[in-house]
């Protein structure tokens, strides 16, 4: 069952995120990986910043979480994680479909360029990579990430975004 997460889920959410993020160790740039990957206070800050988390629950246990953040013109998919031993079971696909259906706005997703499994997952679910130029502009416009992360990330979009590309990108 997919349900809205609440403050009582925070410990389980951090556990899922940090478990799943171990896949990044040795894959993403060394200077961007740390343990825990997301401390509880960082999760709480993401929630204060407007990321709304949904979880996949079965037998009263969360198995995956995914956030969505309204950024005005677009919605961002944020922090998509499934417990390591549950990967490939369809939980991520169900969460992504649920979040995508919850908004009529174009959807953007940022992830590490070296996280090939994540990129393949989003491509399989109908998202496409944006160009390098668009990526930099979008990451600057809609995310609050350091330059180093911009250099080592990609952005994917749904089909709705392409129709609005001229309106969304701020030319510098």
Automatic annotation (TrEMBL):
Keyword Transferase: yes
UniProt keywords, alphabetically: Transferase
MF GO annotations: acyltransferase activity, transferring groups other than amino-acyl groups
CDD domains for the chain: NAT_SF (cd04301)
Alphabetical list of Pfam families matching this protein: Acetyltransf_10 (PF13673)
Residue ranges annotated for the N-acetyltransferase domain, each copy included: 1-148
Protein name: GNAT family acetyltransferase
